[in-house]
Write a structure and sequence with these properties.
heterotrimer; A mainly alpha (205); B mainly alpha (487); C mainly alpha (347); A: 205 residues; mainly alpha; Four Helix Bundle (Hemerythrin (Met), subunit A); 2 domains; 8 helices; 71% helix; C: 347 residues; 13 helices; 0% strand; globular
Chain lengths: 205, 487, 347
């Protein structure tokens, strides 16, 4: 009973906030609605028994990606009036595309229900290990069967990171970065000197 | 599955990835001063990887013993053949780069590292035994390639090339992924062997869409018509050593991958994809030949030439026979050497301030001002055109023979007609070099690495290359046998 | 607890519902009381280190100071700047406060005494603590004022930086314990040190991780010396500049609830949680939650001590520490710990 209630709560909120993402006039509000949508999606994942995916969704999308997104959107200087004008102008086109996509979905699912699309049975390759917990099962697959692909994907991310740095990093000669170890090596006797200057003579530094 | 066995099979990839990571650390600590040393180390890595690949090819490895990680990865003779070509082109792109980038003060230690990872990605592509491996390798290569294309940050054209390549490459990846998801939906598996087994008999419309979309995504990567639009712009804008790399290693990998997917995964449905391949082949030959005619920039011309050559290679694929696959592999090897030779020659065209010369008009009278360079370029151009005594002719001949043997005489005839058209612009370049008044612009000296590469490529493409035909036939035969055994 | 309610004649669903509500209240109410007292303790410790007397007027020894402050704040007028984005301005402190309470759901107070005994407990903590930044960022933006905005930017960068290394540190603990469930992690620490010490801190590979975790948790809660987000000499009061009355109080409560949570995590992950410090029979006569509270108090004392003695970091130094020192070190330790376990436990 509670699960059914929770499902409808999460599902309704997810759809509602997704609608508000595109309907709200302020882009910052849009991002915040998007975060709410992610959150409800995570809730649905928990209900589906995929708690690991749910937590990843929150950590990665809500905790990292959306923060950076919010960061950028907050810094933008946007003319809201102009934005709205564009929305009204493109609204029919957007609706048309949405309708086409909807129709395709309906046709596709309809055809499948009618039996004219012969999909392969789900999980035709192997049965999922049911006994282990979520994380254990994913770990088994990622570090066992798909080890090679997993590690290669890591290299892809590394390449992307190196690429981003190569394309944007510029060595500036005019900065004076702090050298912590140099500062730590410095001793009082290197920097100070005791003197007993004669009156009226001044000090030679 | 034996883990140790799998790890032994991916030895070349291990060498490249671990070596690449070490070099990345070296690049980070030592900075750009060490870029020459890191380039040399990278070449050494490629040589080492090639050395452990050679036995796989010469031994003609095939069958279940070559499958690593439950068949996701194949270390058979076919993969080894393609990998050796890739390593050669990668090494060439590393050797010619320092001199080129130093004139812009843009040589950086990341160049060899990114190139090693690009080569690693192409190596994974040709060894793919699973749609996921295919995609991982493709993306690894592509991401490194996007960055390499815009590596010359001071040049706007380079940045533009990188962006164009990135946007269109992302689109191609999307198409490919869409096709892969359809294929998975209708077969229930991502492994090539599983798809091969599942796609028997009458092909359903959805599965057909999957097959076509996968091939379209791959056609982007080999720049076959009608997915060739990015090629001239990217080839022109990217730094010349990178252009040379683009026209060789990723192309070899993508063609080998297309062969693997078409002949192995979709091998039971050759009739479904044959007409697509025939169309792409003929269109590439025609567009490559006609598009090149108006070009005044030698790099754009070579871009169209590569589109044209891809067309001839696809003729071999259209036959869907082992002889056709073998012919494609022979053609690929010759094509790689022709590309290396011609791009190195282009790289050696510098004016008195050692700026790069790219316009064809400035090459006028090259045979008199710089005779050796002129003659080498002549060999390259005539070989690309497929004029008989040169080795390029042999490549075209084996492909056409395979087509005729497969009773595709019309296709072979049309391809030969296209080949005649394309000879026109190659000969125009030769005419400019040999019979026009000297423009006397090409002055700059080149270093020994350029000369060495150019002379090797010239000797390879000269009639002396025919001494290698027996050897090549043997290797290509072993490689294609491995491909067809799995299928 | 659900079973008790079922025995009283409720249907299972209702029993579960009532039990959960009761559990939440059992955690949240004492926590609020603890926050009030811990603010008092913080001020006393700080004062003592500065040779002052601290709050000593309201109630015996000034014990009721926090409640008096609460009453004062409660009676203040709520001021909303006219240029502020009203809805978000009001929601932001609620987010901070709620998030600070939510993570307590998975902290075990005794064997089995935990509100939500889920097998991804630690990931849940990570997920919830990564939400904390929203309260700050939204406040900074919604205030429509420059100092709060700067502060929000700083907060976002700071929290993300330290969350990364905290994640790696937690991975080390998870590897050693073999579970993401916090209760299982506590159990795994039973006799972890030579069979007598309860706690991962007695482990050469995990002790440095604990030190880094302690420092990172100070940065994560934006406590001194990492309180760049409310550095009063640069940013007035940071993101709290425009807040007053209850919305200000919610930030105050949320911040201290977060500090207590981090202390509880330090205790749970590295110092044996509700286990007594040593594996000796008679120490078990003292109930588990008392041990946990003692450990939390100990760590809170360290927090206060640091706040009173260490000068504030400069912003670039803060970033450097996070990205260039902690991240590579924690990554190295992930490799070391997994390598060690591979050879000794699973090899």
């Amino acid at each position: 009973m509670i699960q059914v209630l929770a499902f409808y709560l999460f599902a309704t909120l997810a759809i509602l906030s997704a609608v508000l993402v595109i309907m709200s006039r302020n882009p910052v509000h849009s991002v915040l609605w998007l975060i709410l949508a992610f959150f409800n999606a995570a809730g649905l994942m928990v209900l589906a028994g995929a708690e690991f995916i749910a937590m990843l969704l929150v950590i990665v999308y809500v905790g990292a990606v959306a923060v950076l997104f919010l960061f950028v959107v907050m810094m933008l200087d946007i003319d809201f009036a102009e934005l709205r004008a564009g929305f009204v102008r493109n609204f029919p086109l957007g609706m048309l595309i949405a309708l086409v996509l909807l129709a395709e979905l309906v046709f596709g699912i309809g055809a499948w229900r009618a039996g004219s699309i012969d999909l392969a049975p789900a999980g035709a390759t192997e049965a999922a290990p049911m006994a282990a917990s979520n994380i254990a099962a994913i770990g088994q697959v990622l570090y066992g069967k798909y080890l090679f692909l997993f590690e290669s994907a890591g290299i892809i991310l590394l390449v992307a990171m190196v690429g981003a740095i190569v394309l944007t990093h510029r060595d500036r000669k005019d900065t004076r970065p702090q050298n912590i170890s140099k500062q730590n090596r410095r001793r009082p006797q290197d920097a100070t000197v005791n003197m007993r200057p004669e009156i009226g003579e001044g000090v030679q530094l | 599955m034996e883990f140790a066995q799998s790890l032994r099979l991916i030895l070349p990839e291990e060498i490249l990835s671990i070596g690449g990571l070490v070099l990345l650390l070296a690049a980070a600590w030592l900075g750009d001063k060490a870029s020459r040393a890191i380039s040399i180390a990278s070449v050494a890595l490629l040589v080492a990887a090639a050395a452990v690949t050679v036995p796989t090819l010469s031994g003609g490895a095939m069958g279940p013993d070559t499958q690593a990680f439950l068949g996701q990865f194949r270390a058979d003779a076919f993969a080894a053949y393609a990998k050796l070509l890739i390593y050669v082109s990668g090494a060439a792109a590393l050797m010619i780069a320092p001199r080129f980038f130093e004139q812009f003060r843009a040589m950086r230690a990341e160049y060899p590292v990114l190139l090693v990872f690009a080569v690693l990605g192409t190596g994974i592509m040709v060894s793919a035994g699973d749609l996921m491996t295919l995609y991982i390798g493709l993306e690894m290569n592509s991401l490194a390639a996007y960055v390499l294309a815009s590596f010359l940050r001071v040049d706007n054209r380079s940045a533009e090339a990188g962006l164009k390549y990135f946007v269109l490459g992302a689109l191609a990846s999307g198409i490919l992924l869409y096709g892969m998801s359809l294929t998975y939906g209708f077969t229930g598996t991502t492994s090539f062997a599983g798809i091969h087994a599942a796609l028997t008999g009458q092909l359903s419309t959805g599965a057909l869409f999957g097959v076509i979309l996968v091939l379209a995504g791959l056609a982007f990567k080999i720049s076959a018509v009608p997915f060739h639009m990015w090629t001239p712009d990217v080839y022109e804008g990217a730094p010349t050593p990178v252009t040379m790399f683009f026209s060789t290693a990723p192309k070899v990998a993508a063609i080998a991958l297309t062969m693997r997917v078409a002949l192995e995964a979709f091998g039971n449905q050759a009739d479904a994809w044959r007409q697509v391949v025939v169309f792409a082949a003929l269109a590439s030959i025609v567009v490559g030949a006609l598009g090149a005619i108006g070009q005044s920039n030698i790099k754009r011309l070579l871009a169209y030439s590569s589109i044209n050559n891809v067309g001839f290679i696809l003729v071999g694929l259209a036959t869907a026979t082992q002889a056709g696959a073998s012919a494609m592999l022979v053609y690929l090897a010759i094509y790689v050497m022709m590309s290396i030779g011609s791009f190195v020659a282009v790289l050696m065209l510098r004016d008195a301030e050692s700026n790069q010369i790219e316009s064809i008009a400035s090459m006028a009278g090259l045979s008199r001002t710089r005779p050796l360079l002129g003659w080498c370029l002549l060999v390259m151009m005539l070989s690309l055109a497929g004029i008989p005594p040169l080795f390029g002719f042999w490549g075209k001949l084996v492909v056409f023979r395979a087509a005729v043997d497969a009773d595709m005489i019309a296709l072979a005839t049309l391809a030969i007609v296209g080949s005649v058209i394309s000879a026109y612009y190659y000969l125009m370049v030769c005419k400019t070099m040999f019979f026009d008044e000297p423009a006397d612009q090409v002055k700059g000296a080149s270093d020994w690495a350029h000369w060495a590469l150019l002379l090797i490529a010239t000797l390879f493409n000269s009639p002396l290359g025919y001494l290698l035909t027996g050897w090549f036939d043997n290797l290509a035969g072993k490689a294609s046998a491995a491909l067809f055994l799995a299928a | 607890m659900t079973q008790t309610f079922v025995n009283w004649g409720m249907t299972y669903d209702w029993a579960w519902f009532v039990a959960t509500i009761a559990g939440i209240l059992l955690i949240a109410l004492p926590l609020m009381l603890a926050v009030a007292m811990i603010i008092y303790a913080d001020r006393k410790i700080w004062a003592a280190m500065a040779l002052r007397r601290g709050p000593n007027v309201v109630g015996p020894f000034g014990l009721l100071q926090s409640f008096a402050d609460g009453l004062k704040v409660f009676l203040q007028e709520t001021i909303i700047p006219s240029a502020a984005n009203k809805g978000l301005f009001l929601i932001a402190p609620i987010i901070t406060f709620t998030v600070a309470l939510m993570a307590w759901a998975v902290i075990p107070f005794n064997s089995g005494a935990v509100l939500a005994d889920i097998n991804v407990g630690l990931l849940y903590v990570l997920a919830i603590s990564s939400l904390g930044v929203y309260g700050v960022v939204i406040a900074g933006w919604a205030s429509n004022s420059k100092y709060p905005f700067f502060s929000a930017m700083r907060a976002a960068a700071q929290m993300i930086s330290y969350e990364v290394s905290i994640g790696f540190i937690l991975i080390c603990v998870v590897l050693w314990a073999g579970s993401f469930n916090l209760n299982a992690i506590v159990e795994a620490q039973r006799g972890a040190g030579l069979g007598i010490v309860n706690g991962f801190w007695f482990n050469l590979l995990l002790f440095p991780m604990w030190v880094m975790f302690l420092i990172s948790s100070m940065a994560e809660t934006a406590r001194a010396p990492f309180d760049l987000t409310e550095a009063e000499s640069e940013l007035v009061a940071g993101y709290q500049t425009e807040y007053s009355s209850m919305s200000f109080a919610l930030y105050w409560l949320g911040e201290y609830a977060n500090v207590l949570l981090m202390c509880a995590l330090n205790a749970t992950l590295f110092w044996g949680g509700w286990l007594p410090p040593l594996e000796i029979e008679f120490l078990y006569w003292i109930p588990g939650f008392v041990w946990l509270c003692l450990k939390i108090l100990f760590f809170f004392f360290i927090f206060s001590w640091v706040k009173a003695t260490v000068p504030r970091y400069r912003y670039d130094q803060l970033m450097r520490l996070g990205w260039k020192v902690f991240l590579p070190l924690s990554l190295l330790f992930v490799v070391l710990v997994s390598g060690w376990l591979m050879f000794t436990r699973y090899g």
